[in-house]
Amino acid sequence: MTKRRFKEYELETGCGVEACLEVVGGKWKGLILHHLMQHGTLRFNQLQKLKPNLSPRILTAQLRELERDEVIVREVYPVVPPKVEYSLSPAGESLRELIQAMQKWGDRFLVRVNAPVRKTSAK
């Protein structure tokens, strides 16, 4: 588990922004949240198929951090083989507008800086 960056935070001084970035920041957390918002409840392998270049070890670590921060819920079913599903918690749902705003801002940024982008294939 990762440690918090600060020992204590001050409200209304920008520390809330830092705390939010600790929760949704990181290379893959925003993308994981985006997929859970878009697809609903997903199993580990489904998440991995959505981003194949994400290693299982890193995906596990990111999911554990999101669960620790109570942004996602991990539900384990007592069956063989094991079945584990991930979904948004109420706190995770409350991030929906933020993640959508980040998506819009990021899309505009990529166009503005003329980044190499490809269109998603229609399924």
Structure notes:
- By secondary structure, the chain is mainly alpha-helical.
- The chain has a single domain, classed as Orthogonal Bundle (Arc Repressor Mutant, subunit A).
- Helices cover 50% and strands 11% of the residues.
- The chain has 6 helices and 3 strands.
- It has helices at residues 15-24, 29-39, 44-50, 56-68, 90-93, 96-112, and strands at 42-43, 72-77, 83-88.
- The protein has a 3-stranded antiparallel beta sheet with strand order 1-3-2.
- The longest helix is centred in the last third of the chain and has 17 residues, at 96-112.
- The protein is globular, with a radius of gyration of 16 Å.
- The mean pLDDT is 88.
- It comes from Tunturiibacter lichenicola.
- It holds the Pfam family HxlR.
- This is DNA-binding HxlR family transcriptional regulator.
Secondary-structure blueprint:
Elements: H1 15-24, H2 29-39, E1 42-43, H3 44-50, H4 56-68, E2 72-77, E3 83-88, H5 90-93, H6 96-112
Antiparallel strand pairs: 1-3, 2-3
